[in-house]
Amino acid sequence: MAKRKFFIVEIIGVILGLLWLSPFYLMLVNSLKTKREIFTDVIRLPESFNMDNYIEAFTQLEFIKTFFNSLLITVISVGIIIIFSSMAAYALSRNKGKASGILFFIFVAAMLIPFQSVMIPLVTLFGKFQMLNRAGLIFMYLGFGSSLSIFLYHGTLNGIPKSMDEAAKMDGCNKFQTFWYIIFPMLKPITVTVGILNTIWIWNDYLLPSLVINQEGMQTIPLRMFFFFGEYTKQWHLALAGLTIAIIPVIIGYFFAQRQIIKGISDGAVK
Length: 271
Description:
The chain crosses the membrane at residues 7-28, 67-90, 102-126, 138-157, 178-203, 236-257. By secondary structure, the chain is mainly α.
């Protein structure tokens, strides 16, 4: 009976897996077809594997420049969020005064504010200070990404005993050295989680870059894909090739970092 139930669960899992993979199959297969083949049959394999779609889409997307724009913004933003949030959470967790409690409450409450309610005044304010485009976007990501990150770090730091700080102080470490050399390495599991959450959000974000970036040479991949799809709406072979190119960096990044990602998540679950 138990084996039968397990077999049924396996079948359901396979079906769900195939359903999840079906959009990727359609995207990949149709990106290799001509326009005529797509309108004839979207499911069938292409008559010949034509890479011309990818060459043209790669050129029209200005993919190398767009990719490095996204990479630069994502890496800098995530790095700043991790450093700022971990240090802020450390200060809030070690100081149990009223002011720390109020500040932590403000950070948590900020997560409840919808971005749509502040986006127009925020962009207007940044425009007046000449802080649009790349620098302004990174600064905004720090502001919007810090609340959840501080909340996650704060919960983990509360589980680290203060005796660690006291031992470091007896060894001659100041506050910064205690945090950076003793406490921060112990936060690796939650840092991986914070990094994953913010990387996925920033890399795939369209709305904020569409409001902040007004120079064509600074467009991120989601923003460039929006204009690309608008230009090639009726040329699905090129649009799908462009979409496939856009998701390749994410897949490659995951395959290279999957061991660290899984280890970080599992370590965090154990702790």
